[in-house]
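yo

u said u wanted the structure for the complex thing, so here. seqs first:
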Amino acid sequence: MVKLTKISEGSEADIYKYNLFGLDCIIKYRRKKNYLIDNIDEMLRLKRTKKEAKIIIHANNNKIRVPSVLLIGKYSIYMEYINGISLNQMGSDKFNKKMFFNIGELLKKIHSNGIVHNDFTIANLILYKNLIYVIDFGLSEFSTADEERAIDLLLMKNSINKNFYDEFIKGYKKSNTFFKQVFSKLENIEKRGRYQIRTLETKER
Amino acid sequence: MFLLILALESSAHTLGVGIVDNGKIIANSKQMYKITDKGMIPARVADFHAKNVYKVIKDALEQANVRLSDLDAIGYTKGPGIGPCLHVGQLAAKHLGLELKLPVYPVNHAIAHIEVTKHLGKLKDPIALYVSGGNSQILGIENTPFKHYHIYGETFDIGVGNMLDNFARAAKLIPAWGSTVAKVAESGNYIDMPYSVKGMDFTFTGLQTNAVKRIGKEKLEDIAFSLQETAFSMLTEATERALMLTGKKELVLSGGVAQSKRLKEMLELMSKSHKIKFYDADNQFNADNGAMIALVAEKMYNSDLKINKNELNIDQKYKIDKVKILW
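structre next:
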């Protein structure tokens, strides 16, 4: 009997913890949506699972700290279980400036590898053995558009206080060739005032 | 105690007059300009409204069994909508206000659609999927920086209603908020179409172009079915995400396209799976109507809002998230 524990439920996927040949892993399973006709449901689950796996693997190949993909099923991705603590569970009293400088550098690395995360909040950052890992690429895209990059900055800005955000920006800015245009896009978006709370509250860990 | 408020709606092809009494809708009369396959010519529609406005007011008064002199306030649609059409309602409202010495309230059309559904369903704090010709938005009340309807997601190009109408015209069907497309779709099978949702936003032009291009090459019923399924699936998925994000437990569907049975069915199924309370109003309130305007005018009246004379204008692009919600 295999032990499969559901640890969270998102808007389209469930997350299970599982032991694969002695290795702790999580399974992200995209469930069937009862309101979609089978053709569309099937097409979306296949496409999205494939894309998400592709993005995580691309990130991993480029030395971005993400969970390694172990297996790809039809609608599920088996990933390494990062046995750390997510920053939103950790509590802001344990935050420090260096940490957010590193997170800024990490996002720069994600962007320079042609990925936008689209849900870059502290809920999706995990501290493990003093290193920060990024999880949940469910809404991510391959994109180098300034606007999409700016939204990642904005999501982080809205989830931490100003001191840490300033450090985060310093890390992001460091030897970054696209910083200027992304930052001016960010100011632009904020003026439009529409993106204030547009990320999903992640119930996934 | 009576509190009688009469309001006019004339943002598009419907001229409506509604009367409410303490939150109860006691009249909802309307006249509709017949849309042909050529669509609406604003000046002609405005002429039609001007010709019919006194008759529709009279109808409403008879329906409610009240006299003009019984009224306590007047409301009208300030926007968004078609300029010349909006003007008719605005002028009639101002005229009535002046003659009867009553306060006049300018109402946002989109808010009225949501509020009437919320009111009839007795809901407190729902997410609203507002789908009409020009609009497709996912909204909900947020309290910062002031209490307003926040746009969580919306179409980046055209409204779902116009998309369905554009397809209908290309397929030589009568454009009617998707109802004729739905009829043809009944016997259709699914063929692949572009699906475009990003977070809680969506785009429809790619889908429209794809569907129009295939007319004549594939069975019309298959194209219509796939177009409708794809568009409504996109709307339902984005709405589902907004519900998960905000944690709100109620959902209303409103606006012209809310008359679509298939869209209702999808939202119902989705709501059930998350234990969300779903409500959609009777079709007379999904189509443009005067009662919903009167209902919001009453809320404005009850919140002791002072309106300056210069605010009694029209605004073709009256943005929903700019309006302060005082109730």
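Helices of chain A lie at 38-61, 87-90, 97-112, 146-157, 162-173, 179-192. The two ends of chain A are 25 Å apart (CA to CA).
cya
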